[in-house]
Amino acid sequence: MTTSSTPVLTIEDLTVVYEAEHPVTAVRDVSLALHPGEILGLAGESGCGKTTLAYAAARLHRPPARIASGRITFHDRSGEDIDVLGLDDARLRAFRWDKLSMVFQGAMNSLNPVTTVRAQLSDTLRTHRPELSRAQIRERSAAVIERVGVDPARLSSYPHELSGGMRQRVMIAMAMLLEPQVMIMDEPTTALDVVVQRDILREIVRLRDDLGFAVVFITHDLPLLLEISDRIAVMYDGEIVELDTAARLRQEARHPYTRKLLGSFPSLSGERGAFIRTGAEPEERS
Ligand SMILES: Nc1ncnc2c1ncn2[C@@H]1O[C@H](COP(=O)(O)OP(=O)(O)OP(=O)(O)O)[C@@H](O)[C@H]1O
User: Fold this and answer.
1) Which residues cross the membrane (predicted)?
2) Whose CA is nearest to atom 7 of ligand 1?
3) Which of 41, 73, 95, 109 is a Cys-bridge partner for 232, taking CB atoms 3.0 to 4.6 Å apart?
């Protein structure tokens, strides 16, 4: 997918510290530009700071995490530049889900167990789109649930009546509901079995193609990340040490850590997208 030159989100010199007894600088001077419609993969070993960066970008970090310095700017399609770190609580609530949304690992468990899928979707729509009529809310809820491959009859279901895969799809529908320009996905399918993961990932790529939102995608599955990402940022000890297209990283990774990371997957010469397009299993992807 080609990317336009004006980013949708820019992160500049972001530093995030956990103010524990021994403070940990989990994200160090990170700068990043996310372009409209691109899938940016975030790779790196456990503990390198991926989740901290993702949470901070959505301003979802909680104490002891503190943003020590940096700027996050959302370049809205309306032309307005939004200073994300400067938003007050009310504006932040309006910003989240609407402009930028998140799907985290296990997000499916954050669905409210005592309300139906329909009620959860319509609550969000009523809050953020008060101008919509009841009929429009019903229509939109059915359309979004269908888009993520769930039968709209399921709108009347409670979360416990759905499989894990379906619940995670509902969370993706929630994240897409207001047509945000950026979605941050941290291990969105990790808790699911491989076949369901593949179906959902294929769906995410297709939806991105249709709707044009940008995605920051975090997974430990490097082969998968290489296939679905337009560019990959490699993090090491809180810093982004390399950022390039998946193809170029495969051929000419400069940083020793990236080479080590790629070297640990000897069969990574497969054509990008084969897994998503054909559903080939990892061992067939050589
Ligand atoms: N609540 C916390 N208090 C103190 N340190 C923390 C806290 N949460 C995370 N850290 C530290 O911050 C660093 C980055 O953690 P983070 O979870 O962002 O890494 P990650 O790359 O997402 O790891 P994983 O891939 O395992 O999810 C690690 O050193 C971790 O120990």
Assistant:
1) none
2) 18
3) 41
Interface predicted TM-score (ipTM) of this complex, two decimals: 0.97
β-strands 65-75, 9-18 pairing: antiparallel
Q: Which two tokens stand for residue 83?
A: 């200073």
Q: Within 13 Å of residue 116, how many CA atoms lie on the same side as its CB?
A: 11
Say how many residues make up the chain: 286
Q: Is the CB of 46 under 6 A from ligand 1?
A: yes
Fold of 9-99+181-284: Rossmann fold (3.40.50)
Atom 25, ligand 1: residue with shortest CA distance: 46
Q: What is the pLDDT of residues 118-145, one digit of tens each?
A: 999 999 999 999 999 999 999 999 999 9
Name the residue of 25, 45, 50, 236 whose CB sits within 8 Å of the most ligand 1 atoms, as the mutation to test its pocket. 50
For residue 145, count other CB atoms closer than 10 A to its CB.
24
Cα–ligand 1 centroid distance for 241 (angstroms): 18
Could you state, in order of their start, the residue ranges of all structural domains in the chain? 9-99+181-284, 107-179
23 CB less than 6 Å from ligand 1? no
50 lines ligand 1 (CB under 6 A): yes
Q: Whose C-alpha lies nearest to ligand 1, atom 29?
A: 47
Pairing state of beta strands 182-186 and 100-104?
parallel
